[in-house]
Structures are given as C-alpha cells and as structure tokens.
Amino acid sequence: MRVAVFGLGYVGTVTAACLASGGHEVVGVDVDPGKVDTVNGGASPVVEPGLAPLVSEAVAAGRLRATTTAAPALERADVSLICVGTPSAPGGATDLAYVERALDDVRRALEVATPPPGGHHTVVIRSTVPPGTGEELVAPRFAGPLPDGWAVATAMCPEFLREGFGVSDFFEPPYIVVGSDDVAASGQLEELFGFVDAPCHRVSVATAEALKFACNAFHATKVSFANEVARVFRGHGVDTREVMSLFCRDTKLNISPRYLRPGFAFGGSCLPKDLRSMLHLARIDDVDAPLLSGVMQTNDLVLRAAVDRVLATEQRRVALLGLSFKSGTDDLRESPNVDLAERLIGKGFDVRIYDPLVNPARLVGANLRHVEERLPHLGRLLTDTPEEALDGADVAIVSDGGPEVVAATVAADPSLVIDLNGGLGPAVEGLAGYEGVLW
Ligand SMILES: NC(=O)c1ccc[n+]([C@@H]2O[C@H](COP(=O)([O-])OP(=O)(O)OC[C@H]3O[C@@H](n4cnc5c(N)ncnc54)[C@H](O)[C@@H]3O)[C@@H](O)[C@H]2O)c1
Fold first, then answer.
1. Would residue 157 show up in a list of annotated catalytic residues for this protein?
2. 166, 207, 286, 410 - which has most CB atoms within 10 Å?
3. Confidence of residue 283 (pLDDT cuts 50, 70, 90)
C-alpha cells in the first residue's frame, strides 16, 4: 500500500520504517526540514534500538522517503497516518493544534494530489487523542464535498509502543486496534498491518481513543501502586522488593483480568478493612498514601453514582435483587448493596429486597450486627421471591443474577434495570431500561 506518515518523531519514524520493512511504500512528512533531510539521507531522526538499520534499508530500497509538504506524500496514497505530537495544554487538556494542522494539510493536499486507484483513502489518527476527537475534529474535515476522485474515511489506530522498545513492540504488539465505523477503512487498516502477527480488534473510534488513555493511566497507576505500597511498608521492616516480586507471581488475582471490569463498588469483609489498616499504618508513620486513600473515595463515588441514577428517575419503588457483597454467599459485612439500600431508604424510597441466601432468622455474629446497625428493618424489607420484590417496582437494581432473578426481571420489565456487576445476559440486556452504573 502507499502510505503517508505525518510527523517523524518517535512514533512516526518507527511506524514509517516498520511499515516500509513490511513492504509498503511510505512517504514521511515533517515540518522540520532537518528531520526530513536525515530520513532522506538514510538515517533515523530519533534514537531507538534497531531503528537506524530499518530506516537505512528502507530508504536504500526506495520504500521510504520524506518531504516537508503533504501533497507529494498524498500522491496516490491509500492511507495517511497522523503521528504528530499531542502535548499537554496549560489546564491539562490535550493540545490538538498539531493534529488539526496535519489534518488541514491532508485536506488541502487532496486538492492537488492524484487519488489512489479506486479513490478510497483513509485518514488515520495514530497520535494519542482524547475520546471525541475523531467525531468532532477528524471526520467533519472530510465530510463535505471532496475533490474529484477522492473518497475519504477516517479512523483511529493507536500504537502500543514503548519508547526504547519501539521497533520490537511494533512487530509484537498485544493487538492491532482499528477504530472506525467505515468497513472499507477497517479492512484497509487490517491489510496495512497484515504482516504483523497479532490479533486485530475492530472497535468504535471512541473505544480506540479511550483505550490508549486507559492503557497509559493503568501503566502510571501500576508504577505508583508499587511505589506507594513500598513507601507504606518500608518503615515496618518489610523487604518491599520481595513483596512486589511475589505479588506479581500471582497471575490469578493480581496480574490478571480479575477486578478490572467496570461494575459496582467493592466491599465485603476484607478489602475495605485491610485497606483502612494499610492507610492507618501509613498515617502513624506520617507517610502520605494518596493513591490508596483515593481508592476509598472512588469506591464511594460509585455508590453515589448508583443512588444518583435512581434519584434521577423520580420513581419511588425500588427492588434490590441481591444483598450480600458477593453472589453465592450470605456475607453482608460491608456489602455495598447494604449501603445502597440504606441510602435509598434514607432518601425515602420504598425498597424491597430479595436475596436467595439472606435469611434474617439465620444471620449470626458480625453479619447480624452489621445488618442490625445498617438495616434494622431488614426482615420487613426482604421478600421470599424476586417477583414479590419486583411487584410494582419502577426500578430494579440487580447484583445477584441467578436464573430466577433474570426471569422475574425480564417478566416485570421495570422502567430502569441497573445491572450492578454486569453480565446478566442478553434477555435482561435487551430490556429498554437496561443500564449499568458506569455504562
Ligand atoms: N507509545 C509511546 O511510547 C509514545 C511515546 C511518545 C509519544 N506517543 C504519542 O505519539 C504521538 C507522537 O509523539 P512523538 O513523541 O512521536 O512526537 P514527537 O514530538 O517526537 O514528533 C512529532 C513530530 O511531528 C512533527 N509535526 C508537527 N506538526 C506537523 C505537521 N503538520 N505535519 C508534519 N509533521 C508535523 C514535528 O515536527 C515532530 O517531528 C503523541 O500523541 C504521543 O502522545 C507515544
């Protein structure tokens, strides 16, 4: 394919040289004439292990060259990849000025360049941009009448390269992600990266945009988590490197997809208690632990979001299906569902609760104390069947999705169904009022 790559920085040069090594014909564009001369001289304008030989081989083979203007790069080009910088603006927003300018350069170049055979061209954002950029900034630029022979679609195709490992990460990415609502554009991008052995995921533009931010936020959080855990334990005679090394060897719960689905708040008899205790250790040593403190705050915000969602309906009758903190148990200690029930009752909602395993007559010990404190009238709120809880309810909040709960919810079809933990299945997800707290 013929490819124009805008921006010959770390991402652009790696992308251009690797695509050329895969057999594509690539023209790099940069406003910096020094970088353009460097590439045309067969050298890399940035230092990345393995990049210099790829650039020199591709230039020598005639598969890579560079220019300071867009038009020659757009000549018969199938794809434009925008890899310009997206620095922070003063308030923290992404400064999209370079992206806008590169898009305008592409749009102007269409006026003079010869279209590719078939006329189909895809403008792809590869820079890191916030969700909404594709819809608000990229697509509209190519929506109007285009010069004769050009048909342009737009897409987002984030990179997953680490600086210092850019070339090896290009050839061994976790996956290729193609964000576009245009089938032809998605097909073209799959073909472009077809020589890379990785699964390809076709998603919406906003998903592709948000994914890259989520990845970077998670990587940053991982670094700070390890450092914060070490700061909290260091004063307690703990070998923090050994702790984190073993921590990482738990690939079942720690380094795994577990606990990484948007859903409802955490709770139960361990996580809140032990997190509080760690924060206490930090406090007695005068160690700030803002990440771990923030975890508690974020958890409370999820609970509040659920309450706000119900408040916004202006309905009064609520069925809460599932009360224990985890389905399959009757453990109510610090269950966020108990909190949710308490808050809704406090705001005057008529709440009925069904939980197949919670029987007030059988509750003992800490479990009983917790309920007596938080929901003293539990006995009166509990129903024997999900149908009774749902009878006349305008809102169903479902955390325990056993088959009887699913069937009763589908039959009742209330105006709002909040699926707290996700995965209630297609029958419930098909209801008009179906939502999660965070989706
Ligand atoms: N995965 C990673 O490790 C990684 C690393 C750095 C950056 N990024 C992301 O990739 C994107 C690019 O970052 P970078 O570090 O490669 O940027 P960079 O600053 O190294 O390079 C950007 C290049 O774009 C050029 N440019 C600016 N406007 C242009 C235009 N209109 N036409 C042509 N060229 C133009 C600049 O001259 C510069 O050479 C950013 O969104 C960044 O957030 C990812």
1. no
2. 166
3. very high
